[in-house]
Structure formats: structure tokens, C-alpha cells
Amino acid sequence: MSLIDAHQWQGDTIDTDICIVGSGPAGASLAQALGHLDLDIAMVESGQIVDDPVANALNELEIRSNFSYRDRRGARHRQLGGTARRWVGRCIPFSFDAERDQAWGPLASILPTYYAQAAALLGAPEADHTGRDANGDVLAFWADRTARFATPPRVTRASLRCFTGLTLTGEAVLDGRRLRAFRFQTHGRRELTIRARRFVLALGTLENSRMLLLLERQFPSHGPEGLGRVGRFMMDHPRIHHGDIEAPVGLAAYEQRIEAGLVRKRGFAGDGASVRVYGNVLRHLGIAERLLQRLPLNRYQASSVRLIARERGWLRAGANELRKRGVADAAVARFFNRTHSTRFTLMSYCEQRPRIDNRVVLDDSGDALGLPRLRLHNHLHYEELEAVQDFYAQLTQRLASAGCTLRYDPRMLESPACYTDASHPLGGTRYAVNRNEAVLEGDLRVIGLDNLHVTGGSVFPTGGIENPTHLIVALSCYLAGVLATHCGEASL
Questions:
Q1: Which pLDDT score, from 0 to 100, does residue 388 have?
Q2: How many CA atoms, within 13 angstroms, populate the side-chain half-sphere of residue 437?
Q3: Element (H, E) at 183
Q4: Domain ranges of the chain
Q5: Which whole-number Å values give the CA distances from 269 to 262, 276, 390, 408, in the listed order?
Q6: Cα(159)–Cα(456) distance, integer angstroms
Q7: Which residues contact 238 (CB under 8 A, 6 or more apart)?
Q8: What is the pLDDT of residues 363-386, one digit of tens each?
Q9: What CA–CA distance (Å, rounded) separates 205 from 201?
Q10: If we measure between CA atoms, which residue out of 320, 308, 263 comes closest to residue 124?
């Protein structure tokens, strides 16, 4: 494996077998899953090894929504490892539903076969990661190895070159149904061309959509069929932090616990007729703890500690760091799990069902490289707001039967303005069993192109309420198997 700053590359062309654009969980997992094959792989990252403000300024976008977005850059981060460098490691395996997730088609039964591989890549023991426990509650785990995305993937046989500081422009060379080359720019505006037998976009949801929209603009009349449907059916898991719970007997089962060698947590599942809702119980904080939570910690390790501290206190967050280093595992687990609170708040996440009007389009304004920015249109629907209201009513009864009290203002739940995004944009380059609504084939190829694939959250035809990274990694493991079948093709 070689790590190359594109600014230092001597030449204007790079030839490779597989070009993976993006080094976050989707791209890095794909490269690692291909690492046992005799291939030349080029993985391209717009950012650098360290945080690069110049690269991240390229994430600016316009947002039009009836709920609030906390990050006007769409929660994107350009750096080796992608947005996982700012992420705290919480994973919830996607729980496919026969009715609500029909759009996944055969992938709904195929992808769970990759869950164990995805869990291993994320640092979880091999187990049945269904995302639900025996009672139907949502079951999350914290991935101990997520910080590995800060370094290039480990490969055993493949030749892997990781280029940093190189941004895809969306300009391509097409030869019939085959993509021959993509053009890139360094931040100094120097152009490089990459030629490959197979290309994979693993740039994250919004950037995957932007690159395909730019490709459609380049070939407006005779472009591949799938490009005409790019940008539609955008989703997130909008959340509302509202509701106080008094639990005289505690809610130990719904607090973070160390179980089977990992930090795990259960949440309340609200499975309505068509919209899923998920309630996460949070410990009520005192004034001093609230002030500590405001510390500007952005690196994965620091933000992970802060989140554990938010839910279990700073002493237990420190104890968990010892556990991750193999120090007194059993004693740490007993200490971590022993105490519980009696006062909580409720953070609820609502599924957005796929709607064609929730979309991204190219804006008239340009970024520092002269590429059009994105404009995101995403709105909460009344059906989704009603699902949250029903969830709170049902949860009130459930908690009352356990001797607990949930207090909330129903008017808050009715107003989209009281919700914020969950930093999980999904959709835009979707696969769907209904080809008229799809951008991708079942092998994650762009419809109408033989050698351009896409992986990541942009592929999702439905979003659920789960943190998407576990499924994104499983999706990349699946794509690695698809690409492996093409290894015998003639070279460039």
C-alpha cells in the first residue's frame, strides 16, 4: 500500500484496474474486501490525512427544508477516512421489513449475509446482528475499530495506491456503454485523468449524487438511462429531543451497557403501519455536565468518549477506554453496568419514506473548483409527523405499565420546525426493484453503463431508522463480491 499526495504526483494520467473514489467507510471497506485479489486498486480522496479546510469548503450546499439542519455542509467531511473521522461509532444493523422495504427486492435477503463481515470490519464480534432484540427493541452497538478509517485499508495481495488531495470533477470519457476515464483536479487546479476497467463512486450520499448529476449534464441527450433519475427520493432520520421520563425503578435495560465485549444500548421501537420511529433514552444532565458536553471535540476518539460520557458519565467513559485496551475487562463491565439514573430525556428518530419531491439538484453557484454546488430539498411529511405522535402516545402507556411517567407537549411533535436532521442523508442514486424509479442495477451499476458502480447510503431505496454505516459496509462487502467476478476481464 502506498499513500500519495496528488500534488506530488509526477504525471497527468493514472492507470488501474479498479478506481474507488472516496475513502470513507464505503470506499475503505470495499478496498479492504478486495485486498485478497491480484488487482491494482487506486483509491482517491479529496481531503488529506489531516483536516483540510480548503477541501471541506467544497461541501457547501443550499438547503431548503421544513426542519432544521445542524450542519449546512450536509454533515460531510473530506479527509482520509471520510465522515467517520467525526463519527462516534454507533451502529444499528438494518432490520428489513417485508412490507416497508419491498423496494430492496432480492438485496433484502442478500445483504444480511454480509452482516458478520461488516461487523468484523467495524470491530464487533461475529454474532447475529439483526438490529432488534428478543422483545423487538432496537439494539445498537458501538464499533471499537471505527477509528481504523483514519488509516488506509489493509490489503494482503492487491496493490493499493491511495491518492489524497484529488477531487473528482464529474467530467468523463465515455465509449458506448463503458466509462473509459474520469478527470480529477488537485486543489491547485491541476488536472489528472484516471483510466480504469471499473470505477466505483463511494463519495457519500450527496457527493455521489452530485457527480452523477454532472455526468448527466455532460451527456444530456444520449447519456445512460439511469442518469435521468439521479437526485430523487432523498431521505434522513429527522430527530426530536423532547420528553422527560421519571423512572423511580430506573431504566437500566435502556441505558448503555457493556455486553459480550461491546458497549450496547436498547431503544424503543415504534413500528407504525408505514413509518418507523425509534426512541433513544438519554440520562438527564446536570449543569456542569452540560457545560462539559460543549467542549469542541471533533476527532473520532474524543467525540466517542464525549458521547459515552453523555449517557454514562465521564468516569464510565474513561473506564470504557480501558476496556478497549484490554485492561480489566470484567471489572470495567461490572463498574460500567452497575448504576442507573431515574431521570431521562427522550431523543426520537423518525423514518422518512421515499418521496420523489425530496431531491438534490445542481445549483447555479459554483465551488472553489468551479463545480456547481448542490441544492437539497427535503421536507418532513404529515404522515411521518403523525407516526411520531402515535409513538409517543404508545410509549406513554408502555412506560406507565412499568411504573414510569413520560411528560411531553404534543404540539412540539406536530411542528417540523422542532425537528433536526440526524446527519444521515440517504438516497439520490438508489437501487430499486422498480426499474422506473432506479438509478442502479442490482449489481450497483449505473443503468446503461457497464463499468460504473456506486456504493454508500445514496444506494438505499428506503432509509429505516438505523444508523446507516453498518449497512453501508455490508453493501461494500457485497459489491466486492460483484467486482471479483469481473477480475478476468481484459486489461486496459
A1: 96
A2: 19
A3: strand 178-186
A4: 1-61+76-131+140-235+425-492
A5: 21, 8, 12, 18
A6: 23
A7: 67, 349, 350, 352, 380, 384, 416, 419, 420, 421, 422
A8: 989 998 889 999 999 999 999 999
A9: 10
A10: 263
Dist. CA 169–CA 357, nearest whole Å? 26
Number of helices (H), then strands (E), belonging to the chain: the values are: 12, 19
Cα Rg of the chain, angstroms: 22
Question: How far, in Å, are 41, 123, 211, 445, 452 from residue 178 at the CA level?
Answer: 18, 37, 17, 11, 8
E runs forming strands in 6-89: 13-21, 40-45, 61-65
Q: Give the chain's end-to-end CA distance (angstroms, integer).
A: 22
Q: With pLDDT > 90 as the criterion, what percentage of the chain qualifies?
A: 57
- Whole-structure pTM value: 0.92
- Report pLDDT for 474: 95
pLDDT class of 125 with cuts at 50, 70, 90? low
Cβ atoms 418, 242 nearer than 8 A: yes
For the stretch 159-193, what's the b/e string if a residue is b when 16 or more beta carbons lie within 10 angstroms of its beta carbon?
Answer: ebbbbbbbbbebbbebeeeebbbbebbbbeeeebb
CATH H superfamily, domain 1-61+76-131+140-235+425-492: FAD/NAD(P)-binding domain (3.50.50.60)
Which neighbouring-strand residues pair with 472? none
Residue 276 · residue 348 · CB < 8 Å: no
253-262, 404-413, 446-455, 482-491: range with lowest mean pLDDT: 482-491
**Amino acid identity for residue 5 in this structure:** D
Query: Which positions ≥6 away from 135 have C-beta within 8 Å?
Result: none
In DSSP terms, which residues pair with 91 in a beta bridge? 141
Neighbours of 259 (CB within 10 A): 13
CB 140 within 8 A of CB 302: no
Residue 24: strand, helix, or coil:
coil
Neighbouring CB atoms inside 10 A of 273's CB total 9
Least confident piece of the model among 108-112, 339-343, 432-436:
339-343
Q: Could you tell me how many residues make up the chain?
A: 492
pLDDT at 396 over 50: yes
Provide the residue type at 406 as one letter. L
